[in-house]
Write a structure and sequence with these properties.
Helix content is about 70%, strand content about 0%. It has one domain. It contains 11 helices and no strands. By secondary structure, the chain is mainly alpha-helical.
């Protein structure tokens, strides 16, 4: 008989079990990795987050269907499509996925796990950011192959990162608000409808100056318009930090995340 079986010659507690939750950072990393794998394995999500933005960039760059103003179409379209990628992942994709997780009781079970609710939201946000990095890399490579020549790529890098982060925060808050207050089917319909409306009227592929003056005054304050215009100011025109666009995104982020924290229902 061994010392393990008899306890002889072994220090007290050496082989005693230590039940308990894993450290919080490890739990968040594990949940974020799971969320990312689930997102990347979902064919509908990939269609929304990768295929559609890429096809729009290639199609409207190769064929001048819409008058995008002076210069090459790809220089105008690329910043807008980068903004569309953030919208598709942080808002539409996250709203639909979270809405159905809530419907099927997944969120309820996860909320009862050792991972705190804010930790779950952090993991979801990390998964969104990882997906967006992959989107930006892919779309940038496609745009460069189409002849895109960004301006201010080095000096404006900080501005671009700030715009993408604030855009992610704004759309993520709005997506979670929708997913946490509406039924899953309503979220599916509303998220896709908002995606299409913002694609057309948010300055992504159609310049805002093509709309009536009254409509422009309203559309310029949409988060997708601020994100697209801010990225376009830096990457197409080589402008400095677009403080006005950053301010609009910051307001949307504060309102969206605040409302989601207040009204989100886990069941």
């Amino acid at each position: 008989m061994t010392a393990v079986e008899t306890g002889a010659g072994a220090a007290t507690g050496t082989f005693a079990p230590r039940p308990g939750a894993a450290p919080l950072p490890r739990m968040i990393r594990a949940q974020a990795a799971l969320e990312t794998r689930m997102l990347l394995r979902n064919g509908e999500q990939l269609l929304l987050t990768v295929v559609i933005p890429t096809l729009l960039l290639v199609l409207f760059s190769a064929v001048r269907i819409i008058d995008t103003g002076a210069g090459r179409s790809v220089d105008f379209l690329t910043p807008g499509v980068l903004g569309l990628a953030v919208l598709s992942t942080a808002f539409t994709g996250q709203a639909i996925a979270t809405g159905f997780e809530r419907r099927y009781g997944v969120l309820k079970r996860l909320a009862a796990s050792p991972l705190p609710r804010w930790g779950l939201m952090t993991a979801k946000t990390c998964a969104v950011l990882v997906t967006e990095v992959l989107q930006v890399v892919l779309l940038t490579a496609v745009a460069l192959a189409l002849g895109w020549s960004p301006h201010g790529a080095a000096t404006g890098a900080v501005s671009v990162v700030l715009l993408l982060l604030l855009g992610t925060a704004a759309f993520s808050g709005l997506g979670l608000l929708m997913a946490g207050t509406l039924k899953a089917e309503a979220t599916l319909a509303a998220a896709n409808l908002v995606f299409l409306l913002l694609l057309v009227g948010g300055g992504v592929i159609v310049p805002l100056d093509k709309f009536p003056a009254g409509a422009q005054q309203v559309l310029q304050f949409l988060p997708i318009s601020a994100l697209s215009d801010g990225l376009r100011a830096v990457l197409q025109h080589g402008a400095g930090t677009p403080w006005a666009d950053l301010g609009i995104l910051a307001v949307w982020a504060a309102l969206g995340l605040g409302a989601a924290a207040r009204f989100f229902r886990w069941e």
